[in-house]
Amino acid sequence: QVQLVESGGGLVQAGGSLRLSCAASGRTFSSYVMRWFRQAPGKERMFVAAISWSGGNTNYADSVKGRFTISRDNVKNTMYLQMNSLKPEDTAVYYCNAHVSALDYWGKGTLVTVSS
């Protein structure tokens, strides 16, 4: 069983920055592919970014490329999402996801609100 807890959300003005964290349980965190998703009000949950087990490979949605950076610390069992140049359309609940042996685990999410 994998448990995920997101933190770091909040209210920020357009152009500002936030860093989200996702703390994971499990002794094999370093083997998990980790991802961030987000769900805006009234919309489907959408992929934001992914990072390989080693951190050597990353992937981003086109809408966040060049503004967001995903990273992980396998010693601290934590994944991060640095979000810069935030836009009102980035407003959403951000979810942490762990892909483990073909199973997906989710956190409860953290709300990010970007005001114009």
List keywords for this structure.
seven-stranded mixed sheet; four-stranded antiparallel sheet; 54% strand; 116 residues; mainly beta; 0% helix
Question: Would you give an account of this structure?
Answer:
This protein is an all-beta fold and 116 residues long. It has no helices and eleven strands. Strands 2, 4, 5, 6, 9, 10 and 11 form a seven-stranded mixed sheet that branches. A four-stranded antiparallel sheet has the order 1-3-8-7, with no helix packed on it. A hairpin with a 2-residue loop joins strand 9 and strand 10. The radius of gyration is 13 Å and the shape is globular. The N and C termini lie far apart (40 Å). The mean pLDDT is 95.
Integer average pLDDT:
95
Given helix and strand content, the structural type is: mainly beta
Give the count of helical stretches: 0
The shape is globular
The low-confidence runs, each spanning 5 or more residues with pLDDT under 50, are none
Reported for the largest beta sheet, the result is: 7 strands, mixed
State the total count of DSSP E strands: 11
Please outline what is shown here.
The protein is mainly beta and 116 residues long.
Compile the SSE list and pairings:
Elements: E1 4-7, E2 10-13, E3 18-24, E4 33-39, E5 45-51, E6 58-60, E7 68-73, E8 78-83, E9 92-100, E10 103-106, E11 110-115
